[in-house]
């Protein structure tokens, strides 16, 4: 038994596997082609307690911590779900934590209490208006940081918010917004000084607010069942009551919640690798060439052994770092290393798995083909591999 393998977490794994088998696998191919996950899936996941895992019960969550969210993510993928499904169904994992930390978790807890900020007036109201309904599966939230002319340069955000009495007037644009098409609200990073100043504030902006336009649905290499949008803001009036925390504290809030997002992406990476090993082993046992099963050939067995080793090593390292994050340790460098280790392992394993599947692996009918496409975003989202290397280099004193 380990910190990630306890009786309670085994039950959580079983619950997740049953959910995937019953509510996901019969429909996933259709969702991939439709380009989105149906809204009712959020409510279904909420009813059995999966949607709120990792969020305190005090704000409508199911309790648990970062390690519990890892269990859910890992089991969804290993049970035949997809990384795109995780992105679509659990977008609130990046849309809500800032609100929880600022207003709904004054006494601390699994995901909140780390910003060290005194809750601002209205923060508890945001929890009631947005956090609780989202965790109940009746609302969908998104996080809008990335802009068309800048990716990982969060301090360079150019979308502005000018104070006008009891409102902010927002102008700018965002892109690559996960769940941006379906979202009922968007936690939006805006600059409250001159564009690119780094003085950032987080505002909750509701869909339907005049001046907010959801642009075209972006078509992607992978994550097909996760809708992605461009957003445009033209003189959008947002109540000051929709501000998360104090003005100009957004940059710190974003940085402090990056660790959980990066651990989630690392988890998706090693879980895809593990699933692809399982798929490849199954294929090589069933597939015969020249009168012999593929797995009977030493070259194939050794390749499978190497794939399994890389996947399990990545899993062990991510678990170790995640446990330190959950304990509140400042492990920014280690999180960056965990993400890069898992992404690199995933890239190699999924490529080898598809190769072992031969021509079938190249077809949309093959599950390994979907994982091959989905895996490519993991070294980009949440901070690119190159940005992670910069963080690691700084941690080395370079």
From TrEMBL:
- What GO biological process terms does the UniProt entry carry, in alphabetical order? fatty acid beta-oxidation using acyl-CoA dehydrogenase
- Pinpoint the Acyl-CoA dehydrogenase/oxidase N-terminal domain residues: 6-104
Recorded GO CC terms? cytoplasm
> What InterPro entries has UniProt attached to this entry?
Acyl-CoA_dehydrogenase, Acyl-CoA_DH_CS, Acyl-CoA_Oxase/DH_mid-dom, Acyl-CoA_Oxase/DH_mid-dom_sf, AcylCo_DH-like_C, AcylCo_DH/oxidase_C, AcylCoA_DH/ox_N, AcylCoA_DH/ox_N_sf
> Which Pfam families does this one have?
Acyl-CoA_dh_1, Acyl-CoA_dh_M, Acyl-CoA_dh_N
Keywords, in A-Z order: FAD, Flavoprotein, Oxidoreductase
What residue stretches are annotated with the Acyl-CoA dehydrogenase/oxidase C-terminal domain? 249-396
Q: Where is the Acyl-CoA oxidase/dehydrogenase middle domain?
A: 142-236
* Any one Gene Ontology molecular-function term assigned to this protein's record: flavin adenine dinucleotide binding
UniProt key word Zinc-finger: no
Q: Which SUPFAM superfamilies match?
A: Acyl-CoA dehydrogenase C-terminal domain-like, Acyl-CoA dehydrogenase NM domain-like
Residues in a coiled coil are: none
Source organism, top-level taxon:
Bacteria
The cofactors required by this protein are:
FAD
Sequence similarity: Belongs to the acyl-CoA dehydrogenase family.
Protein name, entry field: Acyl-CoA dehydrogenase
């Amino acid at each position: 038994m380990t910190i990630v393998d306890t009786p309670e977490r085994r039950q959580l794994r079983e619950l997740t596997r049953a959910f995937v088998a019953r509510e996901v696998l019969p429909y996933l191919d259709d969702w991939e082609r439709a380009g989105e996950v149906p809204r009712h899936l959020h409510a279904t996941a909420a009813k059995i307690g999966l949607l709120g895992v990792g969020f305190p019960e005090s704000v409508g969550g199911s309790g648990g911590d970062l390690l519990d969210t890892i269990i859910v993510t890992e089991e969804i993928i290993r049970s035949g779900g997809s990384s795109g499904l995780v992105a679509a169904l659990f977008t609130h994992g990046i849309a809500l934590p800032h609100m929880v930390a600022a207003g709904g978790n004054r006494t601390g807890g699994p995901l909140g209490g780390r910003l060290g900020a005194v809750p601002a007036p209205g923060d508890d109201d945001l929890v009631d208006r947005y956090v609780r309904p989202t965790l109940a599966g009746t609302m969908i939230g998104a996080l809008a940081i990335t802009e068309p002319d800048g990716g990982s340069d969060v301090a360079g955000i150019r979308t502005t918010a000018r104070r006008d009495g009891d409102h902010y007037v927002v102008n700018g644009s965002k892109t690559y917004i996960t769940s941006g098409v379906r979202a009922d609200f968007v936690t939006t990073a805006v600059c409250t000084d001159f564009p690119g100043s780094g003085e950032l504030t987080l505002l909750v902006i509701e869909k339907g607010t005049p001046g907010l336009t959801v642009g075209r649905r972006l078509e992607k290499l992978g994550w097909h069942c996760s809708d992605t949008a461009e957003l445009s803001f033209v003189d959008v009036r947002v109540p000051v009551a929709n501000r998360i925390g104090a003005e100009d504290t957004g940059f710190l809030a974003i940085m402090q919640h990056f660790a959980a997002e990066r651990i989630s992406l690392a988890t998706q990476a090693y879980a895809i690798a593990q699933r692809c090993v399982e798929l490849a082993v199954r294929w090589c046992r069933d597939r015969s060439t020249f009168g012999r099963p593929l797995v009977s050939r030493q070259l194939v067995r050794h390749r499978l052994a190497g794939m399994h080793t890389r996947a399990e090593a990545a899993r062990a390292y991510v678990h170790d770092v995640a446990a330190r994050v959950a304990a509140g340790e400042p492990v920014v460098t280690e999180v960056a290393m965990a993400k890069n280790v898992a992404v690199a392992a995933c890239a190699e394993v999924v490529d080898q798995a598809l190769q072992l599947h031969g021509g079938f692996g190249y077809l949309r009918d093959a599950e390994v083909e979907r994982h091959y496409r989905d895996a490519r975003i993991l070294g980009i989202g949440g901070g690119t591999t190159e940005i992670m290397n910069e963080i690691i280099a700084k941690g080395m004193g370079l």
